Isocitrate dehydrogenase kinase/phosphatase (Pseudaquabacterium terrae), 599 residues
Amino acid sequence: MFPHRLTDTRAYDVALAIVEGFNRHYRLFSETNRAAKARFEAADWHGQQHAQRERIEFYDKRVDECVERLQGEFDVASLSDDTWQQTKLHYIGLLTNHQQPELAETFFNSVTTKILHHSYFRNDFIFVRPAVSTEYIENDEPASLPTYRAYYPTRDTMRDTLLRIVDNFQLKREFEDLGRDIDQVMAALQRHTGTVRLRANFQIQVLSSLFYRNKGAYLIGRIVNGFNETPLVLPILHNDHGQLVIDSALFSQDDLLMLFSFARAYFMVDMAVPSAYVQFLRSLMPRKPRSEIYSALGLQKQGKNAFYRDFLYHLRHSSDKFGIAPGIKGMVMLVFDLPSFPYVFKVIKDFYPPQKDTTREQIKGKYLLVKSHDRVGRMADTLEYTSVAFPRSRVSDELVAELMHFAPSQIEEDGDALIIKHLYIERRMIPLNIYLQDANREQIEHAVIEYGNAIKDLVAANIFPGDMLWKNFGVTRHGKVVFYDYDEIEYLTDCNFRRVPEARNEEEELSGEVWYHVGPKDIFPETFGPFLLGNPSVREVFMKHHGDLLDPAFWQVHKDRIKAGHVHDVFPYEANRRFLHQRQLSHQQQPAAKSLTPA
């Protein structure tokens, strides 16, 4: 029962200490995001990558600092249940005028769940449900920017308005030809919308911060006309001469979904009120869960919290059972799912076959590498949880037996709950090997081309996937092929790509065993073929489009480029959407100029 009076002064002090811990975290988080603009202007791509990796670690460090402070100053292990409940009430009061209350609630959960037993993970003690509204929050400081700016062009002033929208971001680097780029934006908009009547409320609303990721800055807004809203995304890049260019113009919800895909790295965005950004983006992507939008904005812990609330809600409104996921079973991961829920759950096994020379800590390290790396649209994001309680009645006996056999150290039974001490959760996709079994010729061709493109994107991002079997890749709703099995990934620059040596005699040539020396990081691309290309239809397409993946020279060239400092361009849209591509195509199609010299 909740306390009727706030009687323990320590409760307020503990609550204040946790708020101070969160405020320190968000200040450092915001400073890193704010500096992304300067790094983009300076073309400091390595600095941008370093900042993104470092930012991933911010949250856990601040949580650990806060826990240490609470244990040192308040002896929190000895606090009574009543005091903890009073602490939560004080905390809610401290968030009344806070600009990031939902993030602060999540921080409270992160801190207290490191101190309290999982039996306390109830709304009496932590924020199972949000307590403070995030509606209509604005930053009222005099020098602050609104969440978005609104512009009111007419048909005649559209070009000037678009120029002003870009100029207002005050990027400290010149555009190659901003007027030309705006003309292409207007032409692309005309192609997308056709000729439409401008209604009385016609306006362009643009979020006040650019979205920085990889080597790009993305201007994101919406065009409002009557009852219709059209997304507006303008990617801004550097050209080969260090000048800025608008690279494309994107206007559809599917474009936004690809830009904010779960297989892409998190953005850096300077935002005082993140919930307002999420609300704006959700209006453009109503199918996108709030949890994934928070994660895409670099607030992955809030994304985890929102996801878990969605998960609990789904459990309350479903009755099917968790079971072993279909497909080929993994050697190091036990994978299960809930058929009605579009995610899979992965638990690291306690033991592995002899050919898997690894440990639990090494596997967790691989997943952390992916979390902190640029996933270039080809590696699924993972949500990592500890001490997750599943209703025992909803878990099939077959799955319980598998968990008890392969991962007994990770399982705890507590009354009607089955506690899994550590697991990962990923978006469910169709495993590529299963997709290919049921695909027609056209689908096979698309999937195999996408598979090769996925590997090449990973290579360009300094990732060697390790196990390249079809079963370790999945097909998304948009037909993209994404990698999701990370226990063997390595940095490309750490690998040695070699040709298979020629046999010195007939005995070696006919040997069924590897007769030459193989180092721990040696890779022989020529040997990929027998494992991947047994299907003649698959082999034909693969060799036509991606035969170079079987050549060590392909891998070595990319390794050398990365070691020389090259950072790969990543485009979350097709090449034919690029203005540069369209200009080149237009130039090629122009008829040759007639000679003015008399014959």
Q: What stands out?
A: Residues 593-599 have pLDDT under 50 and may be disordered. The longest helix spans residues 9-41. The radius of gyration is 27 Å.
